[in-house]
Amino acid sequence: MNAVSFQLNARNLWDQLTEGSKYNGTKYLQLVPDLEPLKGLIDIKSTDDEPMFIRIDNDDAQRREFFVAKKCCLKLCVAAIFELNRILEMEERNPQMWSESMQWQAFLTTIALLVTSPENHSALNLHQDLAEILFLRDETILRSELYLLISLLTCNNAKVNKSSSIWHLFKKVYLLHVVQNVNVSSIVLHANLLSATEHKNNYYAWSFARFFVQVEWLVYDNNLQGVYTQVRQFCRDAPQDTSSWMFLQHLMTLEFTPKLREKLQLDCLRLLDGFSVGDIRFGEAYGRPFSREEVREIVLETIEWIHRMEITSLSPWEFVKMNIGEDLSTVVDQLKESVSKFEDEHGKIHLINGYFETESSIDESNLLLMKLYTTTANKKRVLRWYEKHGRFNG
Known about the structure:
This is Protein ECM9. Among the domains are: 1-138, no CATH class; 292-389, no CATH class. It contains 16 helices and 6 strands. The protein has helices spanning 3-18, 70-93, 100-116, 121-137, 140-153, 158-161, 164-179, 185-198, 203-220, 225-237, 242-253, 258-271, 292-309, 314-323, 329-346, 367-389, and strands at 27-32, 42-44, 53-58, 63-69, 349-352, 355-358. A hairpin with an 8-residue loop joins strand 2 (42-44) and strand 3. Helix 3 (100-116) crosses helix 4 and helix 11 (242-253) runs parallel beside helix 14 (314-323).
């Protein structure tokens, strides 16, 4: 792949991943072993004999999907390294050659490296520096950069989806929109949930979500009810996703104080260091997004859902456990009665290091009974915690 061919392919990749779509910018980048099984779909032309990737509009999933062959990624990565070295050597020999055109070429090269090697810090730092230069010339670059990062963070490759460096850059781009008074809250939250859907227990996605809700509360005076509604649905669709339930718990106990506001301001200043932008204006909406009465109703609703849907996963019960208190004493009594009644009929359950043992043998082929044993063991874990703490963990 020569320099001209690479630049055309890199520009094509940038255009496709950053353009708007009828799905509000939602795209899904998939790295696949081979494009051959996908023949007959829409080919995105490249300068080589074979397409670099294939694009389709998935109306059912409400997103535009891109399939990229892994061998094409390898070719793109190798070509990007050679091209970037060529451009930087030219700039070093003659700094006056560092024109707008050369900067744009270098920027496109870094995009190819983000797709193929997201933890390449040299390429990432250069990408960020060039993005700032280009943004100062053309404000539309900022929104395109947001869509590019969303495409990377929602792709099917864990190396990219869980890249701490890409998530760190995503924070910066989100904050740049906040500084510019451009509200991208719904787009960012949607992308966050898509990333978490693609890779379960995605620590980086839910860590970003914690940062996101703090900014939303203090900048936009957002009551976070919309965030809770969407995250609750995510948790119920993925009852075994511990990270999402832990974030939901974070929402319930979150309290905004002057100290937290000061810490967030320092974090934002650090993230925006190097960008020629203004300051973020924080409000003073102190207190809890969710009152104790609201948390109580949410806990009762969650317990009812667990029973109705016969959920055996421990994560929802962990959420209940961390929010139970004296105002939910009737729930505690009901749990005690339920456990006692089950153990009287089926024998004692002993909790051991996250597992459980029984005094009587279990017929593991009886799936219904196994489900009841697991549910009862989870209830005992809640009761054990309550007996030790006896109050709301807020």
